[in-house]
Amino acid sequence: MSPQFSYPTTPQQNITDVYHGVEIKDPYRWLENPDSEETKAWITVQNKVTFDYLSTIPARETIKQRLTKLWDYEKYGTPFKKAERYFYFKNNGLQNQSVLYTLKNLDDEPTILLDPNTLSEDGTVALSGLSISENGQYLAYGLSTSGSDWVEWKVREIETGNDLSDHLKWTKFTGTSWTKDNQGFFYSRYNEPNEKTKLEDTNYYQKLYYHKLGTSQNEDVLIYDRPDEKEWGFSGRVTEDGQYLIISIWKGTDSKNLVFYKDLSQENAQVVELINQFEADYSFIDNEGSIFYFRTDLNAPKGKVIAIDINQSNQENKQEIIPETKETLEDVGILNNQFVCDYLQDAKSAIKIYDLQGNFIREVSLPGIGSAGGFNGKKEDTETFYSFTSFTTPTTIYRYDMVTGESTIFRQPTVDFNPEDYEIKQVFYDSKDGSRVPMFITHKKGLSLDSNNPTYLYGYGGFNVSLTPSFSISNLIWMEMGGVYAVPNLRGGGEYGEEWHQAGMKDKKQNVFDDFIAAAEWLIKNNYTSSQKLAIGGGSNGGLLVGACMTQQPDLFAAALPAVGVLDMLRFHQFTIGWAWCPEYGSSENEEDFKTLLDYSPLHNLNSHTAYPATMITTADHDDRVVPAHSFKFAAALQKAHNGEKPVLIRIETKAGHGAGKPTTKVIEEVADKWAFLVDNLGINMI
Fold first, then answer.
1. Per the residue annotation, which of 443, 573, 642, 658 is the catalytic one?
2. Which member of 281, 286, 297, 623 is catalytic?
3. What sequence ranges are listed for the domain Peptidase S9A N-terminal (predicted)?
């Protein structure tokens, strides 16, 4: 134990589980109950130690003030159009939540349609989903409280701003999709949970419903459920022509899905199973009558576009429209009766347009190397909008003419920094097994490669998620202080398609950690930094990444910041939606998976008498995605095992969840604490 810190004593219980003949002790099992008086008391004393320490760091207030100043700029979302109205989000600068505006003409003065900041004093009620009716008359919107995944839906009349009586509860992992007649919408929900344990209990048996405006939820019509398949979840989407309900069926986080449909033009039509095997990912794009277009990775790991005629009996005869390329096809939409394809080229955006026969038309000329998103709209639209961002480019909104191919700036923020003062480069390095991995490195120009630069290495590596360039005030502050920001595109992500993803799953998960460790070693070898100046960070699956790497190579890093991490790999599937991650990680209930999981589970690989990096674990009391028990148990075990002078602490946010919808005030506080912790432990000289 560090002589500088007196850590709270965490009582241990004599609890032992037996997995496939192997005894595993779990002395901190009691911390899995976040609402017990004992756990609440533990949270209080842990936070006191952490915040007492943070309050002694002189740089903390300076960092917070600079963060607040830089954060205070107008931020715009990408506009979208429904009927004769435009909609977009805007944050004036320091508002806790972004506000939804509407206007009929882009030159009009916008009116506020929904301001989540008025729904709670501290900004902890967040908008977590919305859908506009086809006639532009109604807004269905979902609200989440304190960062929970549980969402309640309401309906607002757009012209008057008044809410209707409709109120839907017990929804998670769902949007809403309106019928063409504007009389109601489809959504998915779970059975009513136990109010006392709803933040920990597992979520099974999702059902797809239709809600008619003006009726109570208990009158909603059950469209589809599968009592024999408790892990199946349903996403309902009405086609643009209003004729079909497309039902995408997911099973956990596996990218493979099923596709069923229902003909809404036929009364009492049955649900038809179009794709009834979990063989690949099928993302519905749009339809032309009975021709359904999909983006799929079937026999094409980097993605392609196919057409299926639902009137043909032989569904094996899927027509290829846009073949697989060397780039990764992330997303596809149809505008101006053309496919707009969002590709990744070495984790950078490339937007290409094809006609409906698959003939290449043009590539959208982007402002630089970065990430583009948007291109939403209807099949006939000739106008759309997109966003562009990079590590040194704040998110800028462009208006795009689908006919001429011309982009014009719609909204460009002004941030108090000069992007010309910074440089971005992409390097490629070899991982432990020789795999070639890309990494973005951003820092101030004129950086001296003297091995003495504080460096923050950030990663994720899982669930087919791609890390692409994006702007962040938080990272800008870090670079202003002389820090290097490095982001490797680890296996397990989606940057190079499904094969890249699968190379970091289940029994290949160690590849992800090896990639991250190799990135750290490359930065040290190339004189960017040293082990004494290197910090690692990541959240959720990235928190697992940090936990695994700091336990496998504690001497390689000076500091570690695992956020809302999956840290107990033997019991993750027993809480909320954790079971859904088994396609990614495996399950301790399977003997082979158990051996793999035990080999890297951060909680189970802490060794006593080991000096670990300075560590600040972060979590939140309302996180019902990755329950805080992961972080609680890991913190208790780390404090017991640690035999070094550096602090190993846990920062527990209250009235917050996994991260989505977190108010600006809480984000700024957390970032200030994170950078202050690194300033103190990496020996950064604040000038």
1. 658
2. 623
3. 9-412
